[in-house]
Amino acid sequence: MRFKFDGNSAGTIGAVLLATIAMTAVAERAWGETTVIVIVGAEGTQEFGRFFGAWADRWRTAANQANARVIEIGREAGGFANDRERLKLTLESERKDGPDELWLVLIGHGTSDGRTARFNLRGPDVADTELAGMLAPIRRPLMVIDCSASSGPFINRLSSSGRVIITATRSGNEQNFARFGDYFSAALIDRTADYDRDSQVSLLEAFLAGSRRLAEFYRTDARLASEHPLLDDNGDGLGTPGDWFRGLRATKRARDGATLDGHRARQFVLVRSDREQRIPPEQRAERDRLELAVAELRDRKESVAENEYYEQLETTLLELARLQQRIDELLSR
User: Fold this and answer.
1) Sheet holding 117-119, edge to edge
2) I want to staple 117 with a disulfide (CB 3.0 to 4.6 A). Which of 128, 227, 281, 318 is the partner?
């Protein structure tokens, strides 16, 4: 790998050294380790810096509770840093395949000129197209949570099968300071966001709780909402807003008949319950596969012959019940 330096980028040199060490160590890390990369962008003012720092602290707390590997970019004190280069090198050092989850969290400001959306970093910003290129080789389960203004276009650029993309806004035109990151990060470690009472907060639950509390802020403060979070987890690049959900299921219909989101996001949990941690990864993956099959079949109910629908549903539910019985027996030992 070749690197290009600009002659005064001490931060970049440090990032290169860190990335080189990380690339050496990646082969030594055990499989089954979740990685959480938290990027704090250029703060602009001290007040915003305090906000962003508090949100990032919550992510670090959640990641530590999950025994995940945490990488923070943009929080180093003093000196100039090219955080775009450091982000690129960090992603290059990550495993590209396997079952290990990769969570990428963007906290800060964003902008859009109508053609390209950007997340504001110390040094050069990162554009939606650039981040898409950095993430292209990654085929692991990937979650991207962009808490910045004008972040909506990142859904269109980053959406792909096996990914969950969450943005604070539905378009690049929502350019005011975005508060979604505050409510989302708080929900991530708040048990009142555990809507299905399974003793853990899924990515979907955190998104819904954050979206609802954000909407309540604008109502209570009598402000016109300037941000509308979206979630995409089916790879179609469209996204579904939180107010389309009843409980944990999207119930409104898109005018173009597009498939709604939420099934995959419900299966991703950063801080797992004690019970969930005890389930072997292979059985957890099989359970998720079967539950997803049931959810997708129900979405297609109107387009499947009735006999075929109930036959497929019964087969999958029986297989799921047998698996759940094996899991229960294992955990009772």
Assistant:
1) 110-112, 117-119, 126-127
2) 128
